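Exercise 7.
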Amino acid sequence: MLMTGDPQDDPGWRDVFVSRHLPDGGWGPPESLAAHLGGNGDHFDRFPSISPDGRLLTWVRTFGSSFGPDVPTEYWWVSTDGLGLPT
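Solution. The predicted structure, written as tokens, is:
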């Protein structure tokens, strides 16, 4: 399961996290993907999604400390290879 949340080492911003499905049917603790997605910084990473073919992780990165039509926003993607995401 992909989600966004506050990183413990940089509260107030947003990072992408993954929680893995466990054999007992539950979910593991959220693991930050920040190291794979350009690290933490003065941005919000939101709306993570896996492409239909499972090969890309996409998300929206908003810069600055506010939201609105004038805040710079970019659409990012990386290969899912090496991320250990479920297929």
